[in-house]
C-alpha cells in the first residue's frame, strides 16, 4: 500500500541466492524500488521481471553489499515473491 516499506535487511548467509520476482507494475514515478544502498543501485518494479543476487561470498559468509530494502510506493501496491 502507499507508504509501506520493507526495512533494510539481508536475506541471510544460509540462503546462498535470492530471486525476487515483481508481480505487477506501479505507475510511472510511483517509487517502490528495491534499493541496494551499498552497491548504489535500485530496481524499479516491473511486472514479470526478476532480480537475482548472491547473499554470500563463500559458504556461510554473508556478502554485506547485498543489504537491501523495499522503498515505499507513493501510490499503488507493489506485489512480489521471494525465492531462496
User: What count of helical segments does DSSP give?
Assistant: 0
Low-confidence stretches: none
User: How is the main sheet built?
Assistant: 4 strands, antiparallel
User: How do the strands line up in the largest sheet?
Assistant: 1-8-3-4
Molecular shape: elongated
Number of strands: 9
First-last Cα distance: 24 Å
Give the proportion of residues in helices.
under 10%
- Rg is 13 Å
The SS-based structural class is mainly beta
Give structural notes:
There is one protein chain. The chain has 84 residues and is an all-beta fold. The strands form 3 sheets. The chain has a 4-stranded antiparallel beta sheet with strand order 1-8-3-4, with no helix packed on it. It has a 3-stranded antiparallel beta sheet with strand order 5-2-9, with no helix packed on it. It starts with 5 loop residues before the first strand and ends with a strand. The chain has strands spanning 6-9, 17-22, 34-36, 41-43, 50-54, 56-58, 61-62, 68-70, 80-83. A hairpin with a 2-residue loop joins strand 6 (56-58) and strand 7. 0% of the residues lie in helices and 39% in strands.
